[in-house]
Design a protein that fits this description.
The complex is a heterodimer. In chain A, 30% of the residues lie in helices and 28% in strands. Chain A is an alpha/beta fold. Chain A has one domain: 3-Layer(aba) Sandwich (Rossmann fold), CATH 3.40.50.300. A six-stranded mixed sheet of chain A has the order 6-7-8-3-9-10, sandwiched between helices. In chain A, strands 2-1-4-5 form a four-stranded antiparallel sheet, with helices on one face. In chain A, a hairpin with a 2-residue loop joins strand 9 and strand 10. In chain A, helix 4 crosses helix 5 and helix 6 runs parallel beside helix 7. Chain B has a six-stranded mixed β-barrel with strand order 3-4-9-6-8-7. In chain B, helix 2 runs antiparallel to helix 7. Classes of the chains: A alpha/beta, B alpha+beta. Chains A and B meet through helix 3 and helix 4 of A and helix 13, helix 19 and helix 22 of B.
């Protein structure tokens, strides 16, 4: 049956899906009550597109991101990265998946305090298959002049841009950003979004951004709205706004 | 029942519960130190009390003397000496014993008893049977440990060569005595329950056997409270000199008592040195744990402040955390220490053959340890507590800024430049918190040092054995005669079956006098070209005995403040008791005894006697040993027979029995220390960097990579701790062997740590660290990768 669906979707004209999730359900047991964080979600991320996942707290967007990022496993349903069924992967294969295919950007940057900007990136490039030079990655996010600074010597926005550089330095096919501007003021946030936009544009990385900031939606190709563990509707932007033009 | 616990205390309890692994690890280190202290001190107290009570109750004498032969009428004159309270005049003789079924001839001491009653002094603790009765000259009471070693019971018989005649004695009872807590042959280094027995016989029987009617050769006396025994001894020596006195000794020089007091001192030394390591390390661990707790609770501290808690209340809250961990450790330590103290005291009581045992540990042992621990812990954590108390609410509510790291200039970062990123994280972590790293290194080094200290005692015993039995006493067999014999006897012994070579030896009691310093000991006369008794310096090897002059053991030379070439007076205490001028020809360093050697020809000349020998050292053919021993059992002139192989075995067994327990305790404690330090350090690292490590996992690092960063730091610190710990172990051992109780006139513990001791100690520490590492691995496996994305520290 899933083959059938795949065949129907690979009809000409439709771009290749980098990631495909089918019937994803994630249930948590809280006390005696069952809580469905995800309820039968189908999702596709096409190569090179930028998707923004919008929704209030508890709508299931983080759970979805964690599962497609290989950090969490669904209660039922399957996730394919290209042809790899990541829901069937063991621990080691998931580690390889995260190492080689996915770049993460976190709300709180999660930089290693004891490493400089360049070294934080080298941390990833040293184990990646086809990385770009850390200095080059920093230049993509506009931080050429801060290479040898430690996290404590960088502003919040700069730290987040280092985190983005770290995420893209391995040239991942998929960039997952969880509230990348959540801890930043709007001016700094926009600088960070510009960096993400540039990565998506210049490197063609498939990008998914989780946010509850509706303004961000303007820069996406598609916007997925989540509520109560379901994708309630999808909007396609005819034209992407530049990050620079956003304001909140 | 509804207990009202303040909210803050509830938080404290939950914090303790949450950190239970760490709290327990620290508590165990504290408990180990306290237990060690309580064990050592309470054992010391109990043994002291038991010994004192035993001595008091069974009237152990204060002064002891030996003469060749003196009339009993002297008693009145002895009693008239200053301070003398009670006297006991006895006949005491060495004899060769023969226990049926035992291959070698044994040695024993025959001591006279008044028939049918207890003596006035040095009374017997009768364990089985009865005392000897009048008109039964073949009855004997034997000491309990000898009886047990040979399964001898009242009613059994034993053969003894008494005044060159073989006699069969009937055992009527077994007993213990304060005089023979340690039963040591005058020719052995250490006690041997099996090969040296005490036989108490009726005075009439010994009088008749040795022709001692109206005479005595052994005396004991008690003095009035407050008497200076030195004066009594001086007066006594003057009185007894014409009767062949070899000089009276104070109770403190009495061999059995000397061993007892020495054991006590060793416990005191252990109580002083070792627990301090635990106190310091546990304080450092508490400090590290508390600092970390405060760091994770910045928000809570801010909240408390915002709600109106004062600085003092916040400070007190964290002081209570320290107090709680210490209280747990102290209680555990008390309980453990009291148990171990009882066990160790019982063990001593068994080894020492006490008929009674008083284990009533006073509060001192318990309180000293607890107070010391609390004091050091509070001092060590004062800074962290003050920092928490002073944290302004606004600052506290903000997340801490990332820790500052330095990038260049330092050695570690230059080293780090050569490494990969994960290794660089490790190096920078150490560099950022050097004090914490140093504390971990010190703790691990302390654990290692203690392990080395406890294990090296085996090396020390080996070294003593090697230097004494393989280098100095090279004979297989030593024979002693009841009287000095003409050297003709050498030829006779040489003709016995299995005897391959013989050498003469004399041992003459003597006073060494250098200026105002006096030492009572003995001088040994040996052949100049002696091959069996060879003066052995532990550093320089074998030394020759010169034709003139005396070779002194270094400890004796030190005591007398003499150097090679110096002259001193030698008062020989046998025969005509000549006073001769002697010169120190050489000084040799040894572990055992305060020996002095001279050429036997020169010694005989000084004694103004024709060539005589009291002892014969022999090399024997082992295959004929049994036949030889049978012959020796029946040679009436021979009063002592000492086989070296047995002396060596006994030396090792006796020392090992006490040592193994000691080593066992200390190994467990140092293992606990090593584990405690590692576990604490790793838990703190994990708590601090859990987020970073989880991030690394998200970024695609495997569990192994992450574990490398977490454990790599430990491995590096362990690498630093190993050489430091080995050095510290050496230094601690040096301090220990130089401390009183381990440096005595009789024996000195050598500082001879074998490479294998370092190796084994290192291995044990590594195992302790590895176990902690395995526990960490489990925690790394459980790192919550999802939570890390959402939360900030």
């Amino acid at each position: 049956m899933s083959d059938g669906v795949a065949t129907m979707e690979s009809v000409e004209g439709e771009p290749r899906a980098t990631l495909r999730a089918e019937n994803l359900t994630k249930t948590y047991l809280t006390g005696e009550r069952e809580f469905k964080a995800l309820d039968n979600v189908d999702l596709k991320l096409y190569a090179g597109e930028m998707v923004v996942l919008l929704g209030p707290s508890g709508s299931g967007k983080s759970t979805l991101l964690n599962i497609i990022g290989g950090l969490d496993t669904p209660t039922s349903g399957r996730v394919f990265f290209n042809d790899l069924d990541i829901t069937a992967c063991d621990e080691l294969e998931l580690t390889r998946y995260r190492r080689d295919c996915v770049g993460f950007v976190f709300q709180f940057y999660n930089l290693i305090a004891s490493l400089t900007a360049r070294e934080n990136i080298a941390l990833v490039t040293e184990i990646a298959q086809d990385p770009i030079d850390p200095a080059e990655a920093l230049s993509v996010v506009g931080l050429d002049h801060r290479v040898d600074h430690f996290p404590a010597q960088l502003s919040g926005g700069e730290q987040q841009r280092v985190a983005i550089a770290r995420a893209i330095a391995k040239q991942p096919q998929l960039l997952l950003c969880d509230e990348p501007t959540g801890a930043l003021d709007s001016k700094t946030g926009i600088v960070v979004l510009e960096a993400i936009e540039r990565v998506n544009h210049e490197l063609g990385t498939t990008t998914a951004i989780i946010t509850h900031n509706a303004v961000t939606a303007g820069m996406a190709d598609r916007v997925l709205f989540l509520g109560d563990g379901r994708i309630t509707h999808i909007e396609c932007n005819a034209e992407r706004k530049s990050a620079k033009s956003l304001a909140w | 029942m509804n207990l009202v616990i303040a909210a803050l205390d509830r938080k404290l309890l939950r914090d303790l519960w949450r950190l239970k692994g760490q709290v327990l690890a620290i508590a165990f280190v504290i408990a180990s130190g306290i237990a060690l202290l309580v064990m050592s001190l309470s054992t010391y107290e109990a043994l002291q009390l038991t010994t004192d009570t035993y001595y008091e109750r069974y009237r152990f004498a204060h002064v002891f003397g030996t003469v060749k032969r003196a009339p009993l009428q002297l008693e009145d004159r002895i009693k008239a000496l200053p301070g003398v309270q009670n006297t006991q005049l006895r006949i005491a003789k060495e004899a060769v014993l023969d226990v049926a079924g035992f291959p070698e001839p044994l040695m024993g001491r025959l001591v006279s008893l008044p028939e049918g009653r207890q003596p006035t002094l040095n009374q017997l603790v009768l364990r089985r049977g009865r005392l000897v009765e009048p008109s039964r000259p073949n009855e004997a009471v034997i000491n309990e440990s000898f009886a047990r070693a040979h399964a001898l019971n009242p009613g059994d018989t034993i053969e003894a060569i008494i005044n060159q005649k073989k006699r069969r004695l009937r055992i009527v009872g077994t007993a213990q005595s304060p005089e023979f807590i340690y039963v040591i042959s005058p020719f052995a280094l250490i006690p041997d329950k099996k090969r040296y027995g005490i036989l108490w016989m009726g005075r009439e029987a010994l009088e008749a056997a040795y022709d001692y009617e109206g005479a005595f050769n052994d005396l004991s006396l008690t003095v009035l409270r407050g008497t200076d025994t030195r004066q009594t001894i001086q007066a006594l020596d003057a009185l007894l000199a014409p009767f062949g006195s070899v000089g009276a000794i104070d109770r403190s020089d009495h061999l059995s008592n000397w061993f007892v007091q020495n054991e006590l001192k060793q416990n005191q030394t252990s109580a002083r040195i070792l627990p301090s390591i635990f106190v310091i390390v546990s304080a450092l661990l508490t400090q590290a744990a508390l600092t970390r707790l405060i760091a994770t609770e910045r928000n809570e501290i801010g909240l408390m402040k915002a709600f109106g808690y004062t600085d003092a209340e916040v400070g007190w809250h964290y002081v209570k955390f320290v107090l709680a961990i210490n209280a747990l450790g102290i209680l555990l330590g008390w309980a453990l220490g009291a148990q171990l103290g009882r066990f160790s005291t019982q063990n001593y009581a068994e080894v020492m053959n006490f008929p009674l045992l008083i284990y009533r540990p006073g509060p001192a042992a318990f309180l000293i340890g607890a107070a010391l621990n609390l004091l050091v812990a509070l001092l060590a954590t004062a800074r962290a507590v003050r920092a928490a108390a002073r944290l302004a609410p606004v600052v506290a509510m903000q997340p801490p800024s990332p820790p500052q790291f330095r990038g260049e200039g330092t050695f570690l970062s230059r080293l780090g430049a050569l490494a990969d990123e994960p290794s660089r994280i490790i190096l920078r972590q150490i560099e950022r918190w050097p004090f914490r790293a140093a504390a971990t290194v010190f703790g691990l080094a302390g654990a290692l040092a203690m392990m080395i200290l406890s294990l090296q005692f085996v090396d020390a015993v080996d070294e003593i054995e090697r230097s004494h039995f393989s280098e100095l006493q090279r004979e297989d067999l030593a024979l002693g005669f009841s009287e000095p014999k003409s050297t003709v006897v050498l030829g006779e012994i040489a003709r016995l079956p299995g005897v391959m070579a013989v050498e003469p030896m004399r041992i003459v009691p003597a006073d060494f006098v250098a200026g105002h310093i006096r030492h009572r000991g003995a001088i040994q006369g040996i052949s100049r070209d002696s091959q069996m008794t060879r003066v052995f310096d532990v550093h320089r090897g074998h030394l020759r005995v010169p034709p003139g002059g005396v070779v002194l053991a270094a400890r004796l030379a030190e005591k007398l403040q003499l150097r090679p070439g110096d002259e001193f007076e030698l008062r020989l205490l046998e025969g005509r008791r000549p006073l001769i001028k002697a010169s120190v020809s050489q000084v040799f360093d040894s572990y055992i005894g305060m020996f002095a050697y001279m050429d036997i020809v020169a010694l005989n000349r000084a004694m103004k006697e024709r060539p005589v020998t009291e002892y014969v050292n022999a090399l024997i053919d082992e295959s004929l040993q049994e036949e030889l021993l049978v012959r020796l059992k029946n040679l009436p002139a021979v009063s002592t027979v000492a086989l070296k192989s047995i002396a060596v075995t006994n030396f090792k067994e006796t020392v090992a029995a006490t040592l193994m327990i000691f080593i066992g305790f200390f190994s467990v404690f140092s293992f606990a220390l090593g584990f405690g330090v590692t576990y604490n350090a790793q838990r703190i690292a994990l708590s601090e960097r859990g987020r970073e490590l989880a991030t690394l996992r998200v970024l695609g690092f495997s569990r192994r990579d992450v574990l490398y960063i977490l454990l790599g730091e430990t491995v590096l610190l362990v690498c630093l701790a190993l050489p430091l710990g080995c050095w510290l172990g050496w230094a601690l051992t040096a301090a220990f062997v130089n401390a009183s109780g381990f440096q005595t006139e009789l024996m000195r513990i050598p500082l001879a740590i074998a490479p294998s001791t370092y190796g084994i100690s290192v291995l044990v520490l590594l195992v302790a660290c590895a176990i902690s590492g395995i526990a960490m691995k489990r925690r790394v496996d459980e790192l919550d990768l999802v939570a890390v994305l959402k939360t900030r520290e």
